[in-house]
Amino acid sequence: MDLLKTQTQLSLSELRNTLIRLEDTIIFGLIERAQFKSNDIIYQQGAFHFDNGFTGSFLEYLIWELEKAHAKVRRYQSPDEYPFTPADHQPPLPAPILPALDYPPILHPNHININAQILTMYTASLIPQACAPGDDSNYGSSATKDVECLQNLSKRIHYGKFIAESKFQDPQYHDQYVQLIKARDAKGIYQLLTNEAVERKLLRRLRRKATIYGQDIDDDDATATATANAAGPSKISPDVVVDLYEKYVIPLTKQVEVDYLLQRLD
User: Fold this and answer.
1) What pLDDT score does 54 carry?
2) Is the separation of the CB atoms in 182 and 31 below 8 Å?
3) 251 or 216: which carries more pLDDT confidence?
4) What was the pLDDT predicted at 228?
5) What is the average pLDDT score of the chain?
6) What would the pLDDT profile of 137-173 be if each residue is shown by its tens digit?
């Protein structure tokens, strides 16, 4: 990401612009996944046999195979990318075949990665809401879309580190954060991080976006426009998108922020 390659000081407004762009990516990804049924079998351990002895689900197998290729082209060297493959996985992800890039030291050193929680949330809670139940045999297509959605959700949630660092650097609140960190006051840090007005605005924006993006536009009518009152079936329920952010994305992002700040003075 260009922002992370060129700056050592973080702008909260620029970070929020990045998160707003990710909203579009996440919504369109869910729309793509929702064209297939839930296909629950791809999330079940042991439902498929793999010649290499892999014992996880079909989705976990695809994640592992794709992340091996992504690791070779240094995807996980970027400070805003995190693999779903556990750090202690054997064999581990391969080393990059490309030379390392010189990213400025924006973040305090940390090993926070909550992708295991994100994967559980996605398969257990989000898929049953976003997709029609049943099996249409589109296992490969469904799992490929799953990987894309998971990667985008992971990036969005782990951006909490950059948000936390930006707030920590803010002279207006820096001393308060230092005091709370020294006191190991996770609840106090959470409260100081929270901006309910911004969160309400975010949820309203998401509902409008999901309503508009989920509609088919009749291009035979030159005056047709997409509005929040557009008629016709939606490709994704706006409630699903809003619930995803309200119940999971926002809380998990703040979990990352709190965990990061608790390590900030180490």
Assistant:
1) 87
2) no
3) 251
4) 45
5) 91
6) 999 999 999 999 999 999 999 999 999 999 999 999 9
List the structure tokens of 220: 């035979």
Instruction: State yes or no: pLDDT of 244 exceeds 90.
Output: yes
Report the pLDDT value the prediction gives residue 6, as an integer from 0 to 100.
45
From the list 195, 204, 208, 247, the catalytic residue is 195
pLDDT at residue 18 above 90? yes
Burial readout 31-58 (b: 16 or more C-beta within 10 A, e: otherwise): bbbbebbbbeebbeeeeeeeeeeeebbb
What is the structure's pLDDT at 12? 80
User: Out of 138, 199, 205, 264, which one is annotated catalytic?
Assistant: 199
CB under 8 Å to 154, separation ≥6 — which residues? Answer: 82, 84, 115, 118
Catalytic residue among 33, 145, 161, 167: 167
Is residue 257 among the annotated active site residues? yes
> Is 165 labeled as catalytic in the residue annotation?
no
81 in active site: no
Write down all domains in the chain, each with its CATH number in brackets: 12-216+234-263 (1.10.590.10)
From the candidates 39, 85, 152, 253, which is the catalytic residue?
253
- Catalytic hit among 16, 37, 74, 207: 16
What are the φ/ψ torsions at residue 47 (nearest 5 degrees)? -75, -20
Residue 52 annotated as catalytic: no
Tokens of 158: 């782990």
- Does the active-site annotation cover 195? yes
How far is residue 231's CA from residue 117's CA, in Å, rounded to a whole number? 36
Neighbours of 100 (CB within 10 A): 8
